[in-house]
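Reading a protein record of the kind used here takes only a little practice. The record below shows the convention in full.

——
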Amino acid sequence: MKVFLSLFFILAGVIAFKVFIRRNLPLPVDDQRLLVASDNHGPVPVVVELFTSEGCSSCPPADEVLATLDKTPIPGIEIIALGEHVDYWNRLGWVDQYSSERFSERQSDYSDAFKLDSVYTPQMIVDGRDEFNGGNMARARTAITKAAQSPKGIVELALMDQRLSVHVKNLPRITAGEKSDGLLAITENNLRTDVSRGENSGRFLNHSAVVRELSVLGELSPDETSFEVTRNLTLAESWRKENVRVAVFVQERGTRRILAAAIIGLLNK
């Protein structure tokens, strides 16, 4: 009996050692540029969007809130920050170089979903479920913590040489009558602007997680709980790759509820 137990423990130790080695082996030389991100077995992803503008005098404090959330996440939660600069302030003296009509339209869709009378800046939206003034840090942290308690699907991202592979699975049940979209957002950190006109004239504004591109990866029907897609990323030469991140999330069209999300840096630091 003692001999049998000794052999059993030796065999178990060998198996455990092999599993440990397999999980901790470095990538082969040819795969060193392969980056992988997944929200499985990790912090819960929560998407935090800020609709902002360099032409809005009340926006810089909200930009700081987003930057703080981006740099100092809440324990157990991965905050996916998206700074979306609207373009409707541009006619009032200062043209925001990061602004886009696409972000103004996206904010308008949120306004309809929340049944608001109008759009405004700075507006923060958490996981497509809660909206409030973007300068309110306490409200932001409360909304993020609440959003992290909702069921989320799994998004696995693999990136090599600016070719992104996306695998989404285990999505929670889609709201009856809804369709959802897989969305790709490319963001850039550490941006700064010297504003010479408009409400922020004379100020240096710092920006984090500025959305440089927002596009649709694909549509999911109500009965789909997974999808896969591969996309070649196109980056402007002016974007600093060390500051670029790629986020993917799944969102219902009508309710605006976000069902899954993940983010990955363009370069392995």
Q: What stands out?
A: Residues 29-265 form one domain. The chain has one domain: 29-265. The longest strand covers residues 210-220.
